[in-house]
User: Fold Anhydro-N-acetylmuramic acid kinase from Pseudaquabacterium inlustre.
Amino acid sequence: MRDLFIGLMSGTSLDGVDAVLARFDPQGGIAVQGHVHRPFPDALRADLLALNRPGADELHRAALASNGVAEAYAQAVAALLAATGATADQIAAVGAHGQTVRHRPGEFDGTGYTVQLLNGALLAERCGIDVVADLRSRDVAAGGQGAPLVPAFHAALFGQPGMAQAVLNWGGIGNLTLLGADGAVSGFDCGPGNVLLDLWCERHRRTPFDAGGAWAAQGRVDAALLATLLDEPFLHRAPPKSTGRDLFHAEWLDARLAAFDALTPVDVQATLAEFTVRAATDALLRHLPSPTRLLVCGGGALNDHLMARLAAQLPGTAVQSTASAGLPPLQVEAAAFAWLAWAFTQRRPGNRPAVTGAAGPRVLGCLHPAR
Ligand SMILES: Nc1ncnc2c1ncn2[C@@H]1O[C@H](COP(=O)(O)OP(=O)(O)O)[C@@H](O)[C@H]1O
Ligand SMILES: [Mg+2]
Assistant:
């Protein structure tokens, strides 16, 4: 039985693909063997960003973007195999997330949908490895949010009996996993992660993100703007809940900034950073009042300013990167999708109904066989 799996993750921040090679033992215990990150080509990134909002000829554009994502994923797999010395025939399956461009579970007809663009057939064709894709739709079909899917993996990886702790996955969007001292696992999307910070930085600094949060750290938080941002109803809704660029987009931000046009860009960035932190900490303290530890993964863990503000908001809690618990922050979510591929091959459920709100545990994903 082959025990090597690849996880491929490209999140809402649209920074590119993280690919992780991992070995699983029969209980699902993980040993990560390697990681590569490949940025998306600029044109693909722009196409994907545009597809997050309604526009003309979407079916055609989405189909071509799905091919583009598959090609980018295939290149990440090739780079990962080259970096680790593994070969395609050693890999049991690839768990491939795809690129979310719409996320509307439970809406419209009551079922709604979630769309992760990826031509799984093309990825299987390019790699010659079994591809498990479309990992969220089954949970949505069962009445769930289809997100977040990482809490079960976080629990398996970081859970410690008797310790109340949380994991904050700070990608484009933020999601929290709550691990109770009694072993209870819950989780939900808590609001924006880096998405607004990236957007503002791109607009005013022409760089894709604020490295280390150095720019935000120079600004002054505006209390009135912060209060306006914190008014967002999504933050106050009870879980299960999930969100994406469907809500936190440029128009959302510009509508809220309209009354604050006297603020300098750097003060807006500082305020957006504080908003991003408070969206996470307010939710955390509401649901798990005194966690011993908060582990942070995703690119937000590399933002020193965000991490410092997080620690300042949580005086009794040890705020640490997941690197301190054995897995570097950019590898965690990709490793979770390798784990979901492993779970699929075992026909084990990948969702947690208590997290997503699905009617029950479900095997997630659909298979594009290697041959
Ligand atoms: N050195 C850094 N300093 C500040 N922010 C960073 C740094 N590295 C990555 N990031 C942030 O992390 C984001 C990517 O995080 P990631 O976890 O990959 O998100 P997603 O899953 O949405 O793609 C980038 O868009 C950027 O905002
Ligand atoms: Mg990413």
Remarks:
- The pocket of magnesium ion (ligand 2) is lined by residues 10-11, 13, 15, 18, 171 (CB under 6 Å).
- The mean pLDDT is 97.
